[in-house]
Automatic annotation (TrEMBL):
This is Ice-binding protein C-terminal domain-containing protein. Residues 194-216 form the Ice-binding protein C-terminal domain. Keywords: Signal. It comes from Massilia aurea. NCBIfam families: PEP_CTERM. Residues 1-21 form the signal peptide. InterPro entries: Ice-binding_C.
Amino acid sequence: MKSILKLAMLAATLASAQAMAAPVVLTFEGAGNLAAINDFYNGGTDSAGNSGTNYGINFSGTSLALIDSDAGGSGNFGNEPSASTILFFQTGGAATMNVAGGFGTGFSFFYSSFQAGFVNVYDGLNGTGSLLATVLLPGNTNSACVGDPSGSYCNFIPIGVSFAGIAHSVDFGGSADNIGFDNITLGAEVPGGSVPEPGTLSLIGLAALGFGAVRRKQA
Ligand SMILES: [Ca+2]
Ligand SMILES: [Ca+2]
Ligand SMILES: [Ca+2]
């Protein structure tokens, strides 16, 4: 009995260690433009039939992939940390990510938004259980897009948080069609991927266009 108990404890320790393995970075590259991400990272496909690496990660039906218009999609953004696809949502108040196997240590990502948003990390699936961490996301300035041909949302900022315990879901919240995320990194307080060159910080006219709206050239 004693040795069986020890084995059980060892298995629990190993499972815990596995949950905190090397950071996983979700770049959304390969997902379809305006496709629901669904099981793209879960051994299945997005709503357009594309599949990515199986990390055991599922996204709620409102979570959409968006490809930069400069790369043939309909995204109104620039300077994303991994070109040319990001996560955003057009309906509801948040996109939810479920990680059945759990993850620990920390969580981080890049985001771009004119308005304030938030990210909540929970220990249960689908935004349930205890709130492990909250990251408040101030609206950031987006103006001249240096390094990316076009796009109103062009100031992707890295941000992250460390927490205790094992997380199983994350809500990415904000104003629908006005906030985008990329290089979502599980297991690290600093997001993976290159940090884009900071754009100019002149506070010129913030376009009221949505994330999924390609900016039209002014006549
Ligand atoms: Ca662009
Ligand atoms: Ca781009
Ligand atoms: Ca990307």
